[in-house]
User: Fold these one by one.
Assistant:
Number 1:
Amino acid sequence: MSLAAYACQPARSRGRRHAEPPAPTRDAFQRDRDRIVHSTAFRRLVYKTQVFLNHEGDLFRTRLTHSLEVAQLGRSIARALRINEDLVEAIALAHDLGHTPFGHAGQDALNDCMAGHGGFEHNLQSLRVVDALEHRYPQYDGLNLSFETREGILKHCSRANAERLEAAEPNGVARRFLDRTQPGLEAQLCNLADAIAYNAHDIDDGVRSGLITVEQLSDVELFERHRREALAEHPQLRGRRVLYETIRRMLSAQVYDVIDATRAALEALAPGDSDAVRKAPPVVSFSETMQAQSEDLKRFLFRNLYRHPQVTQTTDQARQVMRELFEAYLERGSEMPASYAERQDRHRAVADYIAGMTDRFAVREHERLTGRRGIA
């Protein structure tokens, strides 16, 4: 398939921070994807929480399965829009590499611990992972990914962090947060594919856990419309097949809506290249109707799943584990591997070490260091 003019073209990439000769059989973005898949941080995602902690069940999503689902959705949409599938996949597979153990509860706790020391944000940490914390190559730290992949990984960034990154890398991946410009279409697409994926699989995991029910979801228009359509076409459906078919139809409807809405925006904008996209308002989007329905679903999940007493009880325990781990390593740096213990930036070294942990390793380390099991 030939790429559209507005796609990110690997031959016109802004390159890597450390110059390398091209690979003989792969373009720049394919090479980025492969480096991400072979990284240590990527493997750890299999034991990192999405919503339910890793020990709570084998069938709940993890950061790894979520990243794979985002990559699948992203590639499907990218193909229809004739933008770069390989770049979309690379960004999708890397976007959660900086997530802490215990999901957003872990991130919030680590951010509190790092108050006064630069804070902590998982999106910025994902960039740190691929730029500095992976140690795989003899010539440099990090994975030395292409500018466009790194641009997509840095989904959010405060102005203070953007200014700091810009000072270290002038006109680099943080510049757009100061100029208020956009990333390429592939990065924009990954942002939306991320939301589509987690809304769908959080419904699945939430019902599987028993914390939300299909009956409750009848109040959510996006879900209920597709459930009714599924049963009208397949009246014999029962049990989980109803849920699976409803979610499948929801996903398809959202994918086609993004494709149609984005095609219309591209037709109106008529960008000549990827730089024209960066100077325009956001292009990849839902229609207004689908955006409203998606936000309604997010509100439902926030009220009924993410703030469910059983979830908050576990995440409160997780926050305490993170705080106590941070304090223990800060006081006894020798308990960390030498590559962290010997660093001069002690607070950031502790944050980097804890952020890289899987859920189960963090639980074991907490018990070893405190003598108590922090999560029931």
Number 2:
Amino acid sequence: MKRILIVKLTSLGDMVFTQPLVADLQRAFPGVKIDWIADSYCADVPRWNPNIERVISAPLRGFKKSRNWAGLRAIFSALRELRREKYDAVLDVHGVYKSAIVTFLARTRNRYGYPVAELGESGARFAYNHVFQPFVEEDCARQRMRRAVSRALGYELTRDMDYGLEMPADTPAPAAKGPYAMLFHATSSEEKKWPVADWISVGSAISARGLRVLVPWGNDAERKEAETIAASVPNAEVMPRLSITGVAQMVGKASLVVGMDTGFVHIADALRRPTVILFTTTSRHLYGVDAPGRVVSLGGGGVVPRRDQVLAAIDEVLGVQPPVTSPN
């Protein structure tokens, strides 16, 4: 194998989950060059990985909203860039129509994708002439993907997941004011959220542990909620709106990250920051991470984490010893 293309277009968390695949492929095929194609809005993530040779980005989500000529031209430009190279293998680890179309258009004789039962959109199957073996149910989402590719290309997996991410050095100004924690309260849907009152309680407890509390946001509704949380938490600040890279740089220097099952929280894990991940409706088995002393996942599958569980997890990842109780 001399050159491989990874097709993973979105989303932020999934882009992070896919990064260990790069290290796997380079261990299996020394000297291989790896390219990646992604939607423009989250293409920064593979750009943080110095082991990726070329990142091709196309404004797919932006064009869906705008439907303008500029977006269409940018997409065609990305496709021309895609076809500049010939690949020994193209790995569609996304599994929907748009990723299948990209896979089909790439210059290769070997197009890999998931079996129909495991595709996000079953019609994507047309693009593949090699099909990954079915998932191992016991595996988490990241391990399922790694195992699928390793079986298809014939190499053994290591136990460790090497994300390989390196943040740009120019860290945003809010990081310079002393140690801080970040609370990622926002989610993609209301049903996944954790109550604001719980965020205030936990934020206050973090502040009492001597950390500044920074509350990020991405849209107007999230900003209003961030303001509500920060107004009731001592020593808390609403963060300025930053780019994806700017927020990730802040995450990379945080003393603690607490948040819902979202992309930036998984970036915190990939950057090996002390992290507590909260699940409500989504699957903790598939998307959770547990690394004793550094990352704790709570809740999931309809079970909502309690405040006391979150505080205990925070103490664990911060290395705070629980109080010793005397026997009666």
